[in-house]
Structures are given as structure tokens and as C-alpha cells.
Amino acid sequence: MPGDAVQSRGGSRVITPEQFRERFPVLRDKVHLASCSQGALSVELSAALDRFERQMLEHPNPWAAWSEEVEKARRTFAALIGAHPAEVAVVSCASEGAFQVASGYDWQPGDAIVTSAVEFPSVAHVWLAQRARGVTVRHAVPSKDEWLVWVDDFAAVIEAGTRLVSVPLVAYQHGQRLPVRAVTELAHNRGARVIVDAYQGFGVEPLDVGDLDCDYLVSGALKYGLGLPGIAFLYVRPGLRSDLAPQLTGWFARKDPFSFDPFHLDYAADARRFQTGSPGVPAAYGAVAGFGLLAELDAGAVAAHVADLAELLHERLVAAGFAVVSAVDRERRGPQVAVAMPDPDGVAARLDQRGVSTSPRGRLLRLSLHYYNLDTDVLRVVEDLRSLRDAG
Ligand SMILES: Cc1ncc(COP(=O)(O)O)c(C=O)c1O
């Protein structure tokens, strides 16, 4: 309830959506439904960028502080996905994380990677580029539905020879929550490893690598993570052995990055072996700010709030006659509701003029929800979409 600032749950204080929203001054006069692309600017993110600049003024060689910030980003990310920091590599983007995984395979004739129609292109392209190294790439495609991919669609293409299966936690096009646990079980039974691209869910979906039982997981810090582009994180299940050492490398992948030895190549024993050169330090400040905000929240409360908003948005859009393509049931509908329409870019531009941020992709207008969104945002966007449509 809006005036009820602090609830008490089992003795712990839970931050309400209304309280959380106050950390994002931009939301006083904007409706932000574009977290699937970029989260709203928080007070904490502004302060972190300020701190980055101040440190450079006060300490012209700030590497010690920078390294600590990168380590803090690694630790906080690890805690948010139920991993140990030693299981997390800091990379520059999700594609780099995917590449490091692919580069560890010494592909043999008959080897295959399974991806899907709901893979984000950047990661999908890394898999396709492996064809030049002799691998076959197979796609799980929707068979029962125009847009959604089910576990049977993966089962149809995970065959003998499949060594890696790539599955997103949530589809970037329409927010479908993928059956990751079922795909993982299937892939493991057929002898393949699994990488999860969690970018479209990290921050609003409860995440635990142990529960997912995945071998690798990648996500960046922007979008629902409330940080900036320029940094991403690759979880690697401890004890996994690869055919080859990561092919993209650099001093931050060494046992001792500060040994400065150009004659020998050793690899860190932990997930740092997947790292490369100097990390994206400004983005690490952003990640620490965003992840710090997320760490204050109750992940279950966030997921429930976002699911309630998505349900309301879905219902209101359908009632207003819009062509919603997202999953109908709450279990499969993630933090985003997408509508098929003739000119999503034009509609997004007109909504933007009215102070409503959305995210168009191809034939779809994506409306995404975070803990800072409220029912009023949902009602407002449906009303604006209706009035734009009626005005022709
Ligand atoms: C699911 C998903 N994965 C990855 C990315 C981005 O990949 P990268 O960090 O390589 O730009 C996005 C969006 O930008 C995405 O939605």
C-alpha cells in the first residue's frame, strides 16, 4: 500500500516498491518501462560515477581503489546468483563470456552446439562463428506457438554430438521465462553442458546457479541489473575441465597479474582464467551501485511484484484489443510483456514524447517491469497506447 513505507516480514525490514522508487528521481516525471534495455538512473549510480571522478582527482594513480571496486562487483554478482566469487570471471560483455566458453572446446567432426530462436543475437553470433571451427549449430525453434520455445523444442535438437546447449533465462523478444532447469536436465542426460544467458532476468528473477544446475551463466550489469554497459560476469561451475585454455586472454587471467612476465603463459586456477585485459572500471562502479540496490531487496518480493504488474499489464492490453505475444501463464511470463504492432519504433518515439520509455524490437514493442514500477505506470502506458491507436 503506498503510504505503508516499511513492512515487517519475519522480523526483517522489507523495502517496498514505493520506497525503492524514491532512489530513482527520474521516475518523478517519467514512466520507465524499458528496463529490458537499460534500467533507470538511481541516486546511487550518479554518486558512484561522481566517486569515480573524485578518486581520479584525489589519487592520480587510483589502481588500488579500482581493483577493489572490480572485486566488489564480482563478489556482489556472485552473491546475487548463489555462487562463490572464485567461480565468477569479470568480462566486458555477455558475448565475450560466451566466446570464452566456446574457445575452450577443441571441436571435433560431429560436434554440435544447440541454441534457439530466442537467443539474443550477440550470443547467438558467437555460436554461429564456431562453424568456422567445424561445429554444427542447431536451433530449437517454436513448434507449438509462433513465438515461444518449449522444452520439447530443445529435446528435438539435442542429439548425440551436442556438447553445448545455450538457453536464455528469459527471452529478450517477449519476456518468456524459459524452462532452464528442464533443459539442463535433458542436456546433461545427453552428455552436453549448459550455458544460461541470464541477462534478461538478472535483477528481477530469483537466480541460483545451484538450483539451475547450469555449467556456465553469463549476465551483464545494465538492464534490470541497474548498472552500466562495459562489464559482464561469467559464472563457471567449479571443477569443469575444458579441452583448451581460453583463447582470448591477458594479464588479468594470470595466476599473478602483477608478475609482468611476457615469456610464460599460466592461467589462474579459478574462473579468473577466463578474464582478459584491463577491466571496464567505470562500469564496475556502476555495477557496484546497481547490485548494491538489488542486494537490499528481497528477491522473492521483487519477483512477486513484477509478476503482478506483468499480469495486470497483459490483461489490460488484451482487454484493450492489443496483440500480446508474451506467455499467457504466470509461470512462463517473465518481467516483460510484448505487443505485436505495425510500427513499434514510431509508437515508441511517440510514447517517449509523452514521457513513457519503452523498447521496440522488430515487430514488437517491449514493455518491461522492475521493482520501481507501479500499477499507475501500467495503467498509463495502456491508456497512452490506446489513445495513440485511436488517433490513427
Ligand atoms: C539476453 C541478452 N543477452 C545479451 C545481451 C547483450 O550482449 P552483450 O553484452 O554481448 O552486448 C542482451 C542485450 O543487450 C540480451 O538481451
How would you portray this structure in words?
The longest helix is centred in the last third of the chain and has 21 residues, at 299-319. Helices cover 35% and strands 16% of the residues. The chain folds into two domains: 17-32 and 298-391, Alpha-Beta Complex (Aspartate Aminotransferase, domain 1), CATH 3.90.1150.10; 52-294, Aspartate Aminotransferase, domain 2, CATH 3.40.640.10. It has helices at residues 17-21, 43-58, 63-80, 94-103, 121-129, 151-155, 180-189, 209-212, 281-295, 299-319, 344-353, 375-390; strands at residues 6-9, 12-15, 31-32, 88-91, 112-116, 136-140, 162-168, 193-197, 216-220, 232-236, 323-324, 336-340, 356-357, 359-361, 364-368. Strand 14 and strand 15 (364-368) form a beta hairpin. It is of the alpha/beta class. The protein contains twelve helices and 15 strands. The strands form four sheets. It has a seven-stranded mixed beta sheet, sandwiched between helices. The chain binds pyridoxal-5'-phosphate. Pyridoxal-5'-phosphate binds next to helix 4 and helix 5.
